[in-house]
Structure formats: structure tokens, C-alpha cells
Amino acid sequence: MKTVGLLLLSNIFMTFAWYGHLKERGIPLWKAVIVSWGIAFFEYCLMVPANRSGFANGWNGFQLKVTQEIITLVVFSVFAVFYLNEPFEKKYLVSFLFIMGAVYFAFKK
Question: Which of 21, 44, 55, 64 has a CA positioned 20 to 30 A from the CA of residue 75?
Fold first, then answer.
């Protein structure tokens, strides 16, 4: 649970680092990059402990990555709908369900 919580928090930071500047069209690119790097620092402060914790508790690298990708999609979906005001279409849901299949197979014994 600690691993998933840290991955969730790190992905919130990274989503804002990567996509938060999209609505701010007047900011020069170099400023957006520097601000994004600053935000990404906090993402790394959470992601590295999340991966270490998960690995120490028996998760392998593939399981950590697949879990991180699912969390990224969930966080980004919320961000895109509520921050970027983009519609969530049925085709996105279908594509996410296929990715959830990847999680199932990654953790299948």
C-alpha cells in the first residue's frame, strides 16, 4: 500500500510537471521547462522510495512499471477532464481496460 500511495503522489507531481503548462500559452518554453524540472524534483523524491519499497516487498521491476503506468493513466485522466477540460471518450476507457489486462498478467503467478 505504501508503494501505491507513493506512486500515486509522484504521478500527480509528474502530471503537473509535464502537462500543467499547456493552458498557459504565454509562458516561454524555457520557463516552462525550468518550472517543470522543479516540480519533477518532488516526483523523484516520491518515485524512488516507492520503487525501493515495492522492490523490497517482493515486487519485481516489471510489476512496478506496469503499476506505475496504470496509476499514471488514472491520474492523467482526472487531470485531463478537470484541468484541461477534455472529454473522456469511450475509446479511452476501452484502451485502459486493455492496459488493465497487462496488470493482471504482470501479477499472475
Answer: 55
CB distance 14 to 40 below 8 Å: yes
The alpha carbon dihedral of 25, 36, 70, 105 has a sign of positive
Q: What is the pLDDT of residues 16-69, one digit of tens each?
A: 999 999 988 889 999 999 999 999 999 999 999 999 999 999 999 989 998 998
Closest CA relative to residue 23, chosen from 70, 80, 98: 80
Q: Within 10 Å of residue 71's Cβ, how many Cβ atoms? A: 19
Which residue ranges make up each domain of the chain?
A: 2-107
pTM of this structure: 0.84
91: exposed, middle or buried (C-beta count within 10 Å: 0-12, 13-18, 19+)? exposed
Residue 21, classified by CB atoms within 10 Å of its CB into exposed (0-12), middle (13-18) or buried (19+), is: middle
